[in-house]
Design a protein that fits this description.
Elements lengths: L19 H10 L5 H22 L7 E3 L6 H8 L19 H9 L8 E4 L6 E4 L1 E2 L11 H6 L5 E6 L1 H7 L1 E2 L13 H17 L4 E5 L10 H17 L5 E6 L8 H6 L4 E5 L16 E7 L9 H15 L5 E5 L18 H4 L5 H17 L5 H16 L1 H4 L16 H7 L20 H12 L4 H22 L16 H5 L1 E5 L6 E4 L2 E3 L2 E9 L5 H9 L6 E5 L1 H6 L1 E2 L6 H21 L4 E5 L11 H19 L7 E6 L8 H7 L3 E4 L9 H7 L4 E4 L12 H14 L18 H20 L2
Parallel strand pairs: 1-5, 4-6, 5-7, 7-8, 8-9, 9-10, 10-11, 15-17, 16-18, 18-19, 19-20, 20-21
Antiparallel strand pairs: 2-3, 12-15, 13-14
Helix pairs in contact: 1-2, 7-8, 10-12, 16-17, 21-22, 22-23, 25-26
Bound molecules: glutamine (GLN) and zinc ion (ZN).
The site of glutamine has 13 residues, from loops.
Length: 759
């Protein structure tokens, strides 16, 4: 058997250093490139990545992961195993496989055939495609994608989502009988993986990495997850013809899934030692290769190599000197940008604290060298990493970060009933209509923002352009007859970055792109120091908007949890502390909005569920600080000021206690795609404040009819007291066109009128 490399990474960004993957794929979708051109552009990204990783020092056989995807890693293996929804059967070739065009068609949908659903990958901001599996879905190796990519160059290690995770992340196909879960098909899935492993072995591949992050989560009934792990890896381990297997558990500790893996014949097990620490029972792994994930794939900070090297030493002591240990990242580096060296606009001191993917490769190699040659061989690098951390800790912008102790009473408002009475003069009857905040971001708005940023548009001209936009959005809402208006958020490129740019303690990068889903990327801000508001941020725009109308104008802010979730956060203090710092800055902003005459303030928390820990035992603590931070941001106002929040997903039940705890006067949520199903749990929970279930889906360009929206509203009225019911779309409108938005809102207002008139 080829030994496992001493140093590796468990995955690398797939988008290309200059987002070449995005550009190539989107050019194909837009008809600007042929399939052949696109495929060769993607092959070039893969070649560039391999060259880069080899140049950085990943030169041992099987050190470089073959984890490239043209859209998503879950969809890659699902489509390879023929797990394709029946509604797309016509796209399959004679062998049952999709070609590259079909692969993207299913991912994105076509005509009235919806794509695979998308949902977030563990507690990250990456979204994967949810495969659909029914009792009769054919599951069989139909596509040689994995083999093709693995054999593009010698000694690549294919990275494939593992069978248990694939089963758990899938959903039951439409029409599956009550009680069926995709895990019921585990045996068939494992048989298909066996065929894949045989094909890889036949192609000469010696090592394969199976990613099993689902084994660290409590999202599914635990006993069944552990049992599935045991059965899958017993079968795969016992196969006669297969490469050596690394099963990687990222995003947390494997817990009770570790013993069945240890008992199987798989050769290597990967541990997330950043999140999980060394498991108590780690000695059961003696004899297998332990792939020690000691460099975080989730943050952008240079590691403390002393601490990481200490962890490796402790691990080795537990396993015995002869038991092989390899050094690796804790997760794929897909969550971090490529290379900090490109950030020449960043403050050099801050830049010296950071490690992006390429720098993390260097850290892994350094630690592996230390493990092989002893501490002395890397003493210099260790000392430097410690010195950097010390400099960072001593930096005045970081140190100023102590949060005043805030008494809990400071985080509560008057009882809800009292607030309702004090807000009566807002004059909102039953079923008030509103929107979630943003209006279409036209090409003109984007141009103005870009010119302002580039310095080619003066402050005065930019201000005038934004005011004109606000005036037109307000006039449109007046004309449509909406009840609570918004200013439209034209000045915001992104709901988090906008605030990050206006708060001390955040920096933005020039090239720090990470994949969000498919071809889409985001550029998270870096939260590096103490958070302070330099001055009012949104107040002037909201005040101006309010001056144009007699109707209430909503002030629009992004909440503390969402700001953290969509930024790179500090690793030197608990998230709860960072959340309170952001919350205090927002609290000042809320107070200034109130002083400026804004009676309704919305604090969006679309990421509230995203940060929910994967382990049940950690969830209560998270909910507690997340709720406290929101309340800290919003509780400084008078009873007469109405606080709204917005969450955009419908798996409401999972965190309904948290949402109730936010104590907002009005909560808007996504509901239209699930036909208001979310409302029953809301009622049953006893949630007693205002609620605005989205009455139409903004993710699609379709204009909903009055009758359709009216039907949704009638469903809602049947469950929720109409005095507490609000009428709004599912989410913000920034990605839509006015040609869709205007008639949709017109129909929404008319539907509300009909239901009000004839309840
Ligand atoms: N207020 C934001 C908007 O309308 C909310 C976006 C979101 O929930 N993701 O764009
Ligand atoms: Zn939303």
């Amino acid at each position: 058997m080829t030994t496992f490399p001493a140093a590796t990474i468990t995955g690398y960004p797939r988008i290309g250093r200059d987002r070449e993957m995005k550009k190539a794929v989107e050019a194909f979708w837009a008809g600007r490139a042929t399939l052949a051109e696109t495929e060769s552009a993607l092959a070039a990204v893969r070649a560039q990545t391999r060259e880069r990783l080899a140049a950085l020092g990943l030169t041992e056989p099987y050190a470089i992961p073959a984890d490239f995807t043209g859209y998503d890693q879950v969809w890659d293996i699902a489509s390879s195993l023929g797990i394709i929804p029946a509604r797309f059967d016509d796209l399959r070739g004679p062998d049952g496989a999709l070609d590259a065009a079909g692969y993207w068609t299913v991912a994105r949908g076509v005509g009235d055939r919806p794509p695979l659903e998308m949902t977030k990958w563990f507690d990250s901001n990456y979204h994967y495609l949810v495969p659909e599996i029914g009792p009769d879905t054919p599951i069989r190796l139909v596509d040689d994608r994995v083999v093709r990519l693995a054999t593009e160059a010698p000694g690549l290690r294919p990275v494939v989502v593992g069978p248990v995770t694939l089963a758990l992340l899938s959903k039951a196909a439409d029409g599956a009988p009550e009680g069926f879960t995709p895990l019921d098909r585990l045996d068939d899935i494992v048989t298909a993986y066996a065929a894949l492993l045989r094909a890889l072995a036949d192609a000469g591949v010696a090592w394969v990495q199976l990613d099993e992050p689902a084994l660290v989560a409590d999202t599914w009934p635990r006993a069944r997850t552990v049992e599935a792990t045991a059965s899958a890896y017993r079968v795969l381990g016992d196969l006669e013809t297969r490469p050596a297997l690394l099963v990687m558990g990222s995003y947390g500790p494997l817990g009770d899934a570790l013993p069945p893996l240890a008992a199987s014949r798989i050769e290597a097990i990967g541990l997330d030692l950043v999140r999980g620490g060394i498991p108590d029972d780690v000695d059961i792994l003696t004899g297998k290769t332990v792939v020690a994930g000691v460099i975080s794939g989730r943050n952008i900070w240079r590691a403390d190599l002393q601490e990481a090297f200490g962890t490796l030493g402790a691990l080795r002591a537990r396993l015995g000197d002869d038991s092989p240990v390899a050094v690796a990242t804790s997760t794929s580096l897909q969550h971090v940008p490529h290379d900090v060296e490109r950030e020449d606009a960043l403050d050099p001191e801050l830049r010296s604290w950071l490690a992006f993917a390429d720098q993390k490769v260097g850290e892994v190699l350094t630690l592996a060298r230390g493990l092989a040659e002893g501490h002395g061989a890397i003493a210099g690098a260790i000392a430097e990493s410690v010195a950097v951390r010390a400099r960072r800790a001593a930096h005045p912008g970081v140190r100023a970060g102590e949060v005043p102790v805030v008494p809990d009473a400071f985080r509560s408002r008057e009882p809800y009933e009292e607030r309702v009475a004090a807000q009566e003069d807002l004059g909102l009857g039953s079923l008030p209509t509103t929107t979630i905040g943003s209006f279409p971001q036209t090409a003109e708005i984007r141009r103005a923002r870009a010119a302002h940023r580039a310095g080619t548009m003066s402050e005065g001209d930019y201000d005038a352009a934004m005011r004109a936009e606000i005036a037109s959005v307000v006039a449109l809402q007046e004309q449509l007859g909406l009840d609570v208006l918004v200013h439209g958020e034209a000045e915001r490129n992104d709901m988090v970055q906008y605030f990050a740019e206006n708060l001390d303690g955040f920096a933005t990068t020039g090239h720090g792109w990470v994949q969000s889903y498919g071809s889409r990327c985001t550029r998270p801000s870096v939260l590096w120091g103490a958070v302070r508001r330099r001055g009012p941020i949104t107040v002037e725009w909201s005040r101006y908007a309010q001056s144009l109308t007699a109707k209430p104008m909503k002030g629009m802010l992004t909440g503390p949890v969402t700001i953290l979730a969509w930024s790179f956060v500090r690793d030197d203090q608990p998230l709860a502390v960072s959340a309170d710092q952001v919350a205090l800055a927002l609290r000042e902003e809320v107070a200034d909005l109130e002083t400026a005459g804004i009676r309704v303030v919305q604090v969006d928390e679309p990421a509230l569920r995203e940060l929910l820990p994967l382990r049940e035992e950690d969830q209560a603590e998270y909910v507690s600080w997340a709720v406290r931070a929101f309340r800290l941001a919003t509780s400084g106002v008078r009873a007469s000021t109405q606080v709204h929040t917005h969450l955009c997903y419908s798996e409401f039940n999972e965190i309904i206690d948290a949402i109730d705890g936010l104590d907002a006067d009005v909560t808007s949520i996504e509901a239209s795609r699930s036909r208001m199903e979310v409302l029953e749990p809301v009622r049953d929970h006893g949630f007693a404040r205002g609620i605005g279930p989205g009455v139409y889906d903004i993710h699609s360009p379709r204009v909903p009819s009055v009758g359709e929206i009216e039907a949704q509203l009638r469903l809602a009225v049947a469950v929720i007291d109409p005095r507490r019911l609000w009428v709004n779309p599912d989410c913000g409108l920034k990605t839509r066109q006015y040609a869709e938005v205007t008639p949709s809102l017109e129909n929404m207002v008319e539907a509300a009128r009909r239901v009000r008139q004839n309840p």
